[in-house]
Amino acid sequence: MHCQRFDLRVHITRHARERMAERNILESELHDLLETGATCYKDDARLWIAKEMPGRKDNLVCAAVILEDKLVVKTVMHHFQWED
């Protein structure tokens, strides 16, 4: 998978794939999330990307990612809320 938004190849960790399976998040939904979700940077390389997904009733879906020579998806969450 390639993310146009960051112009990087996407690497989904084993942990993230397991969380996606548990939470019934499809790879196509993850791709949409990465391309169009709201971002919140922790620092220059680490950020969260979150989006309310149509048809899902579990609040925001969020991916914790790292920008390296590729976009590394560390985990995928649901029932996510931005901190104030």
From the coordinates shown, what is the CATH architecture? 2-Layer Sandwich
Distance separating the two termini: 32 Å
The biggest sheet amounts to: 6 strands, mixed
At CATH level 3, the topology is YaeB-like fold
Number of strands: 6
Overall tally of domains: 1
Order of helices and strands: EEHHEEEE
Structural summary, described in words:
The protein is of the alpha+beta class. 23% of the residues lie in helices and 43% in strands. Strands 1-2-6-5-4-3 form a 6-stranded mixed sheet. The mean pLDDT is 95.
Produce a short descriptive summary:
The protein is of the alpha+beta class and 84 residues long.
List keywords for this structure.
DUF4258 domain-containing protein; DUF4258; alpha+beta; 84 residues
Summarize the helices and strands and which ones pair or pack:
Elements: E1 2-3, E2 8-12, H1 14-22, H2 27-36, E3 38-41, E4 46-52, E5 60-67, E6 71-80
Parallel strand pairs: 2-6
Antiparallel strand pairs: 1-2, 3-4, 4-5, 5-6
